[in-house]
Amino acid sequence: MSTTTGSFQQRSDVAIQDKKLRANFLSAMDGLMEKRDLAFDDKTQLEALRILGAQVRQNALVKLPELLVELETKLTQRGVQVHWAQTPDEAVDIIQSITLKEKAQKIIKGKSMVSEEIHLNDKMEQVGVTCLESDLGEYIVQLAKETPSHIVMPAIHKNTAEIADLLHEKTGIERKEDALYMTEQARQQLRKNFMEADIGLSGVNFAVAETGTLCLVENEGNGRLTTTVPKTHIAIMGIEKVVEKLEDTAPLLSLLTRSATGQPITTYFNMISGPRKENELDGPETVHLVLLDHGRTQMYQDDELLDTLRCIRCAACMNHCPVYTRIGGHAYGFTYPGPIGKILMPHLEGLDDTQSLPTASSLCGACAEVCPVKIPIPDLLVRLREEANHPNPQDSYIKGAGIKRHGMEPVLWSMWRWWHQRGTRYHIMTSMLTKLHFLQPSKLAPWTNKRTLPKMAKKSFHQQMKARTDRLKKGALR
Questions:
Q1: pTM above the 0.85 mark?
Q2: Where a domain ends, among 264, 297, 330?
Q3: Which Gene3D superfamilies does this UniProt record tie to the protein (predicted)?
Q4: pLDDT tens, 318-369?
Q5: Which of 223, 251, 315, 399 could be a cystine partner for 218, CB 3.0 to 4.6 Å?
């Protein structure tokens, strides 16, 4: 389900016109790319760590059915109640039933992209339960009545002045463009809500089957408060987040923190293995884990698309993507934006609603180069483009009828294919076009609305190389 209105083309056009938005993203992305580069100063070590991370994730996916059963068994033994949800609606129903049983009126949330995926806040509000975000970025986005534009830094699309205006308007604090002041004020406002909330809800970065441990990575301490102060803790995760052994989390944690924010390690690494015991001073009385499928088993059945499930949600692909940097996350219109969203959302929502996403890429390959678990994102985008153009319901695990092309586009692509199928045709056509270069138009809408049209060379590459070879031969003869 799209989180915004209009088509991708319409949303991206609006985003490109917004100079402030583009400035905010360009500044933020430059900083994030620099931090990641500095965090991985030894490139040989980085490549070895990426290979190890990919192997850890692939090993877990190969054994996924068995590991999920083992995880459920270990967690149940430790007193955690495990729930399985095939669809977002089932996940919401499970959480609503828990709140009804606990007679809960308020949920305090740590950061959870899966809860965004199932649109939990809106669904809980419909039954009279308030969900308050405690992650600072999520808190800012919630105050603005927006959705996250980035999976690690939800409010990255806003600059300091915009956040100062928002907090002053919505919370009444003094308007100061001071990040430390605003953070402290938000902390004070949120503190009492941890004590008042009936339920704490969090995401899960890794779930360890061997020990029955839920791992939560965070910097602000809100995740630890969310999972320990309220009497009930609900964790929600996609079924792919499981790993086999506790030792598997070490390389993934190192890759996640350095890829996401350039940190050697985050401030907190929470390891949750059950509710509070009799001799413990803090922790929830009951713990629930909701395991969500939502199209993930469909991906699991395809040897190529299975790679998508390796993702550890670091957002490095977004930070290095020239498309995402220029339009931001909201233009994509779905929970997961950027390169990972372009290969993930077609599985979750179907190609009918997401057909434009796989084409919103230059296929430059930057996303694959920085992915800490070596997901071949460009290859998967090409695969999805093929699926969208030539849907085959018998062989595809992606629901939808595919892209509906209009106007002259199919004809032009057919001509392009015919032109490039034979070397002789290509040379003849290229030679003709270079001779007619003076007839090239100066504008070609909509391409030139935001770009300068490249000038056609007076000579083709082959002609230039032949001329160069002839000159070298003449020089050699002399």
A1: yes
A2: 297
A3: Alpha-helical ferredoxin, NagB/RpiA/CoA transferase-like
A4: 999 999 999 999 999 999 999 999 999 988 888 778 888 998 999 999 999 9
A5: 223
